[in-house]
Amino acid sequence: MTLLLPQPNQNALDNKKLINLALLLILALSSFILVSLSIEQGRIAHDTNNLAQVKSSPFDNTNVLAKGAIVYDIGAKKILYSKNPDEVLALASITKILTAVTAVEIMPKDTVVTINKQFLSENGDSGLYRDEKWKLSDLISFSLIVSSNDGASAIAGAAGAFLDNQNPSSISLNDFINVMNTKAKDIGMNSSQFYNVNGLDLSSTQSGAYSTARDVATLLAYSLQKHPEITDATRYDALSFKSESNKLHTAVNTNTDIKMIPGLLASKTGYTDIAGGNLGVVFDPGIGRPIAVVVLGSTYDGRFTDVNTLVQKTEEYVAQGN
Fold first, then answer.
1. What is the pLDDT of residues 214-254, one digit of tens each?
2. Is 96 a catalytic site residue?
3. 58 and 320 in contact (C-beta within 8 Å)?
4. Which of 119, 187, 270, 311 could bond 92 through an S-S bridge, CB–CB 3.0 to 4.6 Å?
5. Residue 93 known to be catalytic
6. Cα separation of 171 and 161, whole Å?
């Protein structure tokens, strides 16, 4: 007896193959989607981490006592930190940097300056003598280190006389101050105004000079690039000078914290009742990258704390590879 087995239905077999194929495709697609999602999540996490790194800066949440402040990368022409950088504030003795810059662009470098009697009437005795003679470069260095009002006036007076056809009898500081203001505008100090050559307050309500943190950074950059010798001596805590009259002078830096600043290239303090505490420095973190730090309108001691804080933040910033 022959047993006849039922023959498989061809349509049923084809449907089963299609179902199996569809399941395989669904499984493959699901795996692809899962892998893609995993890759995308990793990319998003990586991008988010990078974004967080970009946004995070040592300067975040940094605060200083100063009313106006700036950290300026001179070479890159980039502001790394600022607080009210364009607020016009009393400048005090930082004025003397512009006095020096203007003078060396008027007079020959070998000029000998005589300390005229009228220049010894300024506030603050820095030890200069009547009729004493100085090399221009030495007098500038001495005056910036000790912030000598007498020295600044003598420098400006000599330059003023040079402008007035080298006639000592017509010494006029006004001519020199006019040139100072022109020079300030020429180098981009567009918010600054100078009424005297040393920054001393003219009265209880008016300063001798006004500027902004941004403008002072511009001045420091210009001085460093065009006349680096002007502020070179301000890197030291003390220096000795002998005038052409053979008188010995010891200059002690008014910036008592210069040893706290690595790679210091320039420094100038300023303080008056109206201005409060001011300080501008240029330092190099050690990579040929001069950076200006300026604080205006701080306190007498706070200016040093403010600058040290910003210097430390700058070092951290540079260490991150920025």
1. 999 999 999 999 999 999 999 999 999 999 999 999 999 99
2. yes
3. yes
4. 270
5. yes
6. 5
